[in-house]
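Appendix B. One record, verbatim.
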Amino acid sequence: MDQLSEEFLQSFRDAQQTSEQVQKLFTVRSELPVFSKKTELMNAIGEFPIILVKGQTGCGKTTQV
């Protein structure tokens, strides 16, 4: 991962730990069905230039990916 991505992830983690609103948002987002596919999706994004994500309306495709 490049330096910018690492810095972004660290700033997100810091904000997540200090912000109650971010904590609530994370909790809600983690309950979306697509959340359980995070590792699989990240691996596919890293491996292929184009991926298609198919799922039911409301499963989190847009907000998570």
